[in-house]
Amino acid sequence: MPYCTNCGSEATDEMHFCPQCGSKLIIPKAGFKHDEMRGYTVEAEEKEPENILDRRIKKGKLYKQWVAYSGLPADEIRSTKTSRDIPVTGERNRRSLALMYILLGVCIGILCMALVFLLTSYF
Question: Which residues in 24-54 are b (16+ Cβ under 10 Å) and which e?
Fold first, then answer.
């Protein structure tokens, strides 16, 4: 009697698909007795888990090409900056940005009023 290789459920010799999971059943060739293989078990070798944190990644060809392409000095690439090292835009920059938007709005308003005045006075 064949067994499903996907879920392990039993199937009859006439079945082509597993009744449990629906995967296609592998039909053994003539002369192969499936029941003889049933008693064997395979045990895997026990390996110690590998500590990934201790493993260092080698800087290969792709890293070197990226450094060359970026055009940045090697000291700048290797340095790691934290959020404390990056300067925060201060209140002075925000005020100048707000002032710039106000002046831009005033200029657009004056331009619109001039266009309305010129277009209505000639027609």
Answer: ebeeeeeeeeeeeeeeeeeeeeeeeeeeeee
